[in-house]
Write a structure and sequence with these properties.
13 strands; about 35% strand; mainly beta; 5-stranded mixed beta sheet; about 0% helix
Length: about 150
């Protein structure tokens, strides 16, 4: 017996929890939503939110690494729970290979690379494909909230 996905109509194997085509929960009533992570609180008050003097940076705004700043200095950057990630976020809510940032012609592009919990940009779940980042964007990766800040001199 197969299960049809309500979102895309794909036929999935019996017992599947997620659609193998679009990744949506097949029985959303039984699945916990990652949107509940919003209740963990806002930006920690002691986090410095100034833009970097040059280039771009990701600043951890909440989570146990709050205040940590990561300069974005390469054309390709990986973020995840894998120790070889350029930005290592050590928490079970983060996939080993969660997101990638790729430099584009007008700035950096963000792409979720198959994370289980998804990635949120300014409170909206990232669609498939690459999404451009703009100064001040808030990324939610697992229970971490990171701010994308760009120098005004670049």
């Amino acid at each position: 017996m197969t299960q049809l996905c309500d979102a895309c109509g794909h036929s999935n194997s019996a017992g599947s929890r997620f659609c193998s085509s679009c990744g949506r929960p097949l029985n959303p009533e039984n699945e916990a939503s990652t949107e509940a992570l919003e209740t963990l609180g806002g930006i920690d008050s002691d986090v410095t939110l100034e833009a970097p003097s040059t280039g771009a940076a990701l600043v951890v705004a909440s989570g146990h690494q709050a205040g940590t700043r990561y300069a974005i200095t390469s054309t390709h950057l990986t973020v995840g729970r894998h120790p070889d990630s350029d930005i290592f976020l050590d928490d079970i809510t983060v996939s080993r290979r969660h997101v990638e940032l790729q430099q584009g012609s007008a700035g950096y592009l963000l792409k979720d690379v198959g994370s289980l919990n998804g990635t949120y940009l300014n409170g909206e779940r990232l669609p498939d494909g690459e999404t451009p980042l703009t100064n001040g964007d808030e990324l939610q990766i697992g229970k971490f909230k990171l701010l994308y800040l760009v120098s005004s001199t670049t």
